[in-house]
Specification:
Elements: H1 10-16, H2 22-32, H3 37-55, E1 65-69, H4 75-80, E2 86-91, H5 94-106, E3 111-115, E4 128-134, H6 142-155, E5 156-164, H7 171-180, H8 184-187, H9 192-199, E6 203-209, E7 212-218
Parallel strand pairs: 1-2, 1-4, 2-3, 4-5
Antiparallel strand pairs: 5-7, 6-7
Helix pairs in contact: 6-9
Length: 219
């Protein structure tokens, strides 16, 4: 996949490499939850296409369990609910979780949302068939991403699925991610096939679906 170089260097690049701490990120999302409907509407059709591409109408998943880490407002978890026997969500932002619960209830969906830190994952090994992380991995450094992958690969009995930004630079995404304080500038340059192997994955695939990078990996 072609990757466009970030057209900044020196002091300007250091200015753009603005990182939030984990606690700062929690505060940001506890504030931003009131505006998150704009993000949900923007990603809705893409997520429909991604989920349909991954699972289609295959009834075999109706016996499987799923969890989404860093689930935010639960927009992806809600789309997973018709596919799996049970779906849960974990996030560190209490206000985003409150929004997730309200929207699930409004849609008459039985999804369990609980507070959970993706940097300190508490689920036992092999506790879910499928584990999802959507539009969250780019928030973290390479070392943290590797740690997250190692842990979630152990949680997943069948597959870990990562959905995120395409791995090429976009000026609009770069601006949003600067405000968010993410590691987007590093994320788009990572060799995820190598990271997956280092995390212990025996199988890895990377595709672009509906304008999203979709990575699938398993032990």
């Amino acid at each position: 996949m072609h990757r466009m170089a970030v057209p900044f260097s020196g002091p300007r690049r250091r200015f753009l490499e603005r990182r939030r701490t984990f606690e700062s990120m929690k505060r940001f999302y506890n504030w931003f939850h009131v505006f998150y409907g704009m993000i949900e509407r923007g990603l809705g059709s893409s997520m429909d296409a991604v989920i349909a591409g991954l699972f289609g109408a295959n009834a075999k998943y109706r016996a499987s369990t799923a969890i989404e880490y860093a689930c935010g407002s639960g927009s992806v978890a809600r789309k997973l609910a018709p596919v799996f026997a049970s779906v849960e969500g974990r996030d560190s932002s209490t206000m985003m979780l409150a929004r997730a619960r309200r929207l699930a209830k409004k849609g008459s969906l039985d999804i369990r949302f609980e507070e959970g830190n993706i940097l300190d994952i508490g689920e036992p090994d092999g506790s879910f068939d499928f584990v999802f992380v959507s539009f969250a991995l780019h928030l973290f450094s390479k070392d943290d991403i590797l740690s997250i992958l190692k842990r979630l690969l152990l949680v997943a009995r069948e597959e870990l699925v990562i959905i995120d930004h395409p791995l090429e630079w976009s000026p609009f995404t770069a601006l949003i991610e600067w405000l968010e304080g993410s590691y987007y500038d590093q994320f788009i340059k990572l060799d995820f096939a190598s990271l997956a192997r280092e995390a212990g994955a025996g199988r890895f695939s990377l595709d672009e679906v509906a304008g999203c990078a979709v990575m699938r990996m398993s032990l």
